[in-house]
Amino acid sequence: MNKYLKLSGLEPLVVTPNSNFINVGERTNVTGSRKFLRLIKENKYDEALEVARDQVDGGAQILDVNMDEGMLDGKEAMVKFLNLIASEPDISRIPIMIDSSKWEIIEAGLQVVQGKSVVNSISLKEGEDEFMRQAKLIKRYGAATIIMAFDEDGQADNYDRRIEICERSYRILVDKVGFPAEDIIFDPNIFPVATGMDEHRKNAIDFFKATKWIRENLPYAHVSGGVSNVSFSFRGNNPVREAMHSAFLYHAIQHGMTMGIVNPTMLEVYDDIPKDLLEHVEDVLLDRRDDATERLLDFAETVVGVKKENDGSALLWRNDALQDRITHSLVKGIDAFIIDDVEEARQSVSRPIEVIEGHLMRGMNVVGDLFGSGKMFLPQVVKSARVMKKAVAYLQPYIEAEKDGKAEFAGKILMATVKGDVHDIGKNIVSVVLGCNNYEIVDLGVMVPPEKIIEAAIKENVDVIGLSGLITPSLDEMVYLASEMDKKKMNIPLLIGGATTSRAHTAVKIAPKYQNTVVHVNDASRAVTVVGNLLQDNNAIYKEDLREEYENFREQFLNRGKQKEYVSIDEARKRKFSIDWKSTNIVAPNHLGVQVVNEFDLKLLEPFIDWSPFFRSWDLHGRYPDILCDDVVGEQATELFKDAQQLLKKVLDEKLLKAKAVFGLFKANTVDHDDIEVSYNGSTYNFLTLRQQLKKREGKPNYALADFIAPKETGIQDYIGCFCVTTGFGTQELAQKFEAEHDDYNSIMIKALADRLAEAYAEYLHKEIRVNHWGYAKHEALSNEELIKEDYKGIRPAPGYPACPDHLEKQTIWNLLKVKESIGVELTENLAMWPAASVSGYYFGNEQASYFGLGKITEDQLKDYALRRQITIDEARKWLNPNLADQ
Hints:
By secondary structure, the protein is α/β, with parallel strands linked by helices. It has an eight-stranded parallel β-sheet with strand order 11-10-7-6-5-4-3-12. Strands 18, 19, 20, 21, 22 and 25 form a six-stranded antiparallel β-sheet that branches. A five-stranded parallel β-sheet has the order 14-13-15-16-17, sandwiched between helices. Helix 19 (503-510) links the parallel strand 16 and strand 17 (518-520). Helix 12 crosses helix 14 (353-372), helix 16 runs antiparallel to helix 26 and helix 19 packs across helix 21 (540-562).
């Protein structure tokens, strides 16, 4: 049985042999970040949380938290910070590394941290008895641990000492303590190189060799380390440090290093390190020359502050051999010369299909290898696909002229967005990436019913089915489809992906319904690895490992869920969030009723665009505008942003998209605890809200959105608003036009831009509501950054999101505002909005209104809700299934 390191925050992190290097964020460490230390010392924990959030946004998969500083109460600071992290879902979704040299701080952290954490670290320096005592406690707390290569005689500073201490530690942990071997992570000590001291010459190479020995001789154990230590001698010379970190990581990973504490902004892309600098750095790291240190020190003086310049040799590659030119065009996404080169290739072979199977696939294999190893990023791969499609389209008439002309693919993949769902950006990106890796794609589009998916899968004889979904009802569609495939005894693996999907839902709800393989894929790069493993000749072991892994995960997940306590709906209502309505300032809107906007200048939305989610949709993680300067993805992010700006300018100048909106402000009061009664034109509409039922500590309320509206029995008139905006009309036509031109890059780009414009329109309109139409914040003057941070009074929650996951509420909004009749935005049968680039929701104006997550609810609220909604329990269960406890 394979034993994988399994960690978790709110989301699981499973480290398998197929996992890429795990990046541990280092900036929430008072010993490594002066800024973080200052914030903790000054008790500015809100700003300290922003440091953590930036680490997560920047791609950290584990968050290292260290509070070891002489002037701090480290124990108190650790507990306070971890508790604050637990209340921030966007931070606490990743596992925590509790980092301290003091056991009391580590144990205090273990007592409050959520999920399965990592302890950093314990060692044999205080002897075996204390080592075993700490290890037993860590095991009892359910954490993994890092073991420093340190014993009673000091730190391991050479190869032999490293393996001696690591082997001794492993045997004690596994044989005497019964510590799970997969939860052991060794840190064999990364020491500086090029210090001028002869005894430091082998610091890097000894680490590499020790890492390899550990992975080969201590089963299931992992290796980590603090990478920045290696370049300590070159503080102040960032070009050299960045090159050293990247080169060190490259070789360490080749030798088996699993994870490490790395600052992504201090990394250069390995293949982009200037060859002369790389040679000098690797001479030192690999101890290849006696004078390596002196040579690097001399060379370092020539690269201080040096910037990359364009030397005018941009087209020299056109003098290369034909295959090299084609590969270059594919890797760089350059389509200007591909037709000429493909025609030259066609003239050199006997059959045109050989150009695809030979020249083009050799180039795409390079793209696949670079992407898989993290040396290319998603936007670059999509551009590569554009070049590939252009080349294939040129060859197609020649191939069709030969009756038997047919390309050999690595496999056939069916892709579909499930019934009722209209979102396909993620699906299209995965299709492009798989296409780049020589898989034939059968794309059924959006809103595809299960019977059509099954029929097409059988007819096309596909090897894998990929399902995508963004809204929560899509999850049930996937469960139903898996059940139907099982009834038909189908034998095709299922890939599950999309924003609302998760490994937990896949393991708990979908996998048990289908006897064949079901696997969750959370990003495009992983899809290639998973499909490759599924379609290999000897795939039985891989499939069995996946099923066992999901069964174990399901068991752990269900057991974890049972530990949570809930209160009854009656008790939750008693613990509602209370507002003193007599002293609350309620502002009557300047304009009551419904207003429609059918003509709107999209240029007004540019200042309101939040670009950070745009980059995330392309798998580039970081916060705008900082991402443009990021040393890892900055160059690609800048190029992507430039392309987006060009297309956006064309859209705005030529009015290629049409924006519409409908909104209304109404008299409202809360009735029967959780319902909001709205009066308009002599009719009454009820918004149904749901209430948190998780048992909380004394004094913490159980929220429902109805708490922010004055109850009817107070006699105080309150108000509510609702809206729908869209910037999606015209998107589909533009995307289809790009696809007809074999331009997936811009097809995906226009959909991503339309989504950003829709969110910007929602932000713009909310501002207009606050300042003008409702007028409760008429003196508001916030920057775009402050708007994105939602630093304003009032909230605009949306059906389907954490505070109100009930999509059925959209029907009430549509009935009240006459959305379809007013602006043409429709609801699918699963209540997704069409066009997809649309946003709807409510407006709450109370200054105490805040966002929250509903969490899980219990059966008594489900029955109460069904009665209020006047639907059956089964129908209520269908719509609220993801939020039901103990399901």
